[in-house]
Structure formats: C-alpha cells, structure tokens
C-alpha cells in the first residue's frame, strides 16, 4: 500500500442500497437442495460498516499478506475506531509510509508481521514515527477469471 493512495472517507458517501439476500446458506461441502426463497434485502454498507465516520476503504498493493487471504488489488474496509490488539490486521504508518501487517506482541515488543515468509517482521522500536492508523475488518476480492471482467 502506498501513501499516495489516500483513503476515502465514507461518512458522507454512504447511501442506502438494499440488495436481495437469499434466505439460505450455501453449502461449501455437499450440495443442499436449492430453495427459491429470497429474504429481505441486505445493505452492504450496514453489513460491513459499524462506524461510518471512522471507516475507510483502502486498496491493497503487494503480496505481504497473501497467506491471510489478502491479495494485491483487494479492497479493505478499515475501521479507525477499533482499538488495535495483537492479532489484528492493521494499517500502520511507519515514518510516513502506509503498510498492512498483523500486529504481534512478543517478548515485550510490538512487531508488524507479514503473512508471507518472504517478508521479515518489523520491530516497531526501530521507527521514529509509528502510528497504527486503523484495523482492517474486511478484505473484498474477486474470486475468478469471470470476475476480472468487472
């Protein structure tokens, strides 16, 4: 993620947009009988965003979080109102540059840890200006070749 990709504030951009929601879960194991039943709609803004005034979308660039299921090009939903805890995936600013990593506490020291063995952990004590900018709560990404046409 690059600092030039400034986040977009959602507060004034949210609009109600209800989409149909099936009243059934989809079986990721064995198939279940299809039911042609549609429940009330779902508004993805309400589903994904708890605190509109402190929530931002950011696009991911790079592969350091690939083993966490976060890929380059994904759209992150980042909530700045959440208190970052060890184990959270956070957007941090290190000496003016954004990075996305997992916050880890080891031996009385905070680290930012990549979810890709090709990247070393970052000891936060080695930086003059460290700011945990927000906590990533969702990553939205395309699943297949067909989705690339959108």
Structural write-up:
A hairpin with a 2-residue loop joins strand 6 (89-94) and strand 7. It is built from 1 helix and 10 strands, in the order E-E-E-H-E-E-E-E-E-E-E. Mean pLDDT is 82; it is low at 1-6. It has one helix at residues 44-48; strands at residues 8-9, 18-22, 38-43, 55-59, 75-79, 89-94, 97-106, 109-113, 122-123, 130-140. The protein is mostly beta strands and 150 residues long. Strands 1-4-5-10-6-7-8-9 form an 8-stranded antiparallel sheet, with no helix packed on it. Strands 2-3 form a two-stranded antiparallel sheet. Helix content is 3%, strand content 38%.
Give a topology summary.
Elements: E1 8-9, E2 18-22, E3 38-43, H1 44-48, E4 55-59, E5 75-79, E6 89-94, E7 97-106, E8 109-113, E9 122-123, E10 130-140
Antiparallel strand pairs: 1-4, 2-3, 4-5, 5-10, 6-7, 6-10, 7-8, 8-9
Comma- or semicolon-separated keywords:
single chain, 1 helix, mainly beta, eight-stranded antiparallel β-sheet, two-stranded antiparallel ribbon, disordered N terminus
Measured as a percent range, the helix fraction is under 10%
Largest sheet: 8 strands, antiparallel
Structural class: mainly beta
Which residue ranges are poorly predicted, with pLDDT under 50 across at least 5 consecutive positions? 1-6
Mean pLDDT: 82
Strand proportion, as a percent range, falls in 35-45%
Shape: globular
How many extended strands? Answer: 10
The number of helices is 1
Cα radius of gyration in angstroms: 18 Å
Order of helices and strands: EEEHEEEEEEE
Question: How are the strands of the biggest sheet laid out side by side?
Answer: 1-4-5-10-6-7-8-9
Straight-line N-to-C gap: 22 Å
